[in-house]
Amino acid sequence: MAGAKLTTCPDPEDCFRRPSCLPVTDEHHVQIVRRHALQCTAQLGMSRLSSHYVATAVSELANNLFFHTSNGGEIRFCCLDKAGRVGIEIIAQDEGPGIVDIAAAMTDGFSTNGGLGAGLGGVRRLMDEFEISSKPGIGTRIIARKWLTEAELCCDRKSH
Amino acid sequence: MKIAIMKLGGILITALPLDLIDEDAMEFQGDLLNEINAHDAKGVIIDISALDLVDSFMARIINDSATMAGLLGAEVVVCGMQPQIGTTLIEMGRELLGVETALNLDLAMARILAKVKAEDMEQADDGT
Ligand SMILES: Nc1ncnc2c1ncn2[C@@H]1O[C@H](COP(=O)(O)OP(=O)(O)O)[C@@H](O)[C@H]1O
Ligand SMILES: [Mg+2]
User: What is the dotted CATH code of the domain comprising A18-159?
Assistant: First the structure.
């Protein structure tokens, strides 16, 4: 399968320091971005459970890129480290059909293709911060962040 | 990718693989229904211990499979869910996974057999 064999993170240190951007145009990419999310959170020193929340959120966003747009999109991963706070930022964006009624799309159980309609609401609850912007005919961008807790920060040996 | 469905007594046992895609899921659901019909299966155990993550897409596949099997009269128990998956599904805010779960295959089998037995007895009662 062409494109399915992307390398996620050739140099793990690198993906921690530099933002990375992975395409989601094929269903197999969902697995790749999930794994990449886990690599990033591991390097940040995030707990197993929080890391799992992040990976699940990334999986939801990737599925939406695949199922709700015709050409897919991309997910950017950025490790945040400012003013004593460390976290991960995930940006999913596409040039797909956009969302006409964002409030409706955020509602649990709302789905335009027979899905469970729990993806966007789920991402909002799994992550600490959530921003969504969308224009019909232009595309959609979702930004989600999760910060390390105090406990995670103080046993993070990689912190600088 | 073909998902194996094994038969043990009147019970079907199957395990979902890690990289399940939509197309495979559809095929699996079709196969499962055929097998339930062919063997007049009374129960289905779906092992998900290979899954490191269950998102709403996967939850839907599991739910739909269970609903369809239920319509054909088979009891369904899901087993082997990794602990953080359960916590995450709860945190996501809805009862995403609408199926009965057991810790492992042994317990799932015990649960299924108990259910099938209870149902048989009910039917026997109705008959008299
Ligand atoms: N990237 C996207 N582009 C266009 N529409 C989207 C996108 N993501 C989500 N949506 C819309 O929002 C709805 C709710 O999304 P979600 O909560 O993930 O549920 P589901 O994917 O199960 O439908 C979708 O059914 C779809 O209409
Ligand atoms: Mg979704």
Answer: 3.30.565.10
